[in-house]
Design a protein that fits this description.
The chain has 88 residues and is mainly α.
């Protein structure tokens, strides 16, 4: 039973990383590109750093939504199927 719970915790962490990684990578890359742009042009406008990054993250969420939903649905089905084995 303890090994099942540990494998469930590891699977939960993996799912969390898989779902967050594309969004975090887009935010990181956009932040880096905007920082380079601001450093070369010496424009220090706060909205210039914030708005494109938010738009890129929203676009990535919309683009990866079917994949994310599929992963979460499969994970939820696995959890529901594991309930009888964990309780007993």
């Amino acid at each position: 039973m303890e090994s099942q719970l540990m494998s469930l915790a590891i699977e939960t962490y993996k799912i969390t990383l898989y779902l967050a990684l594309p969004i975090l990578l887009v935010a990181l890359i956009m932040g880096l590109l905007i920082s380079i742009f601001q450093a070369t042009t010496q424009i220090n406008e706060m909205t210039l750093a914030f708005v494109p990054k938010i738009l890129a993250v929203i676009a990535m969420i919309i683009f990866t939504m079917p994949w994310m939903l599929s992963m979460l649905t499969d994970y939820t089905k696995m959890l529901i199927n594991m309930i009888p084995t964990i309780i007993s």
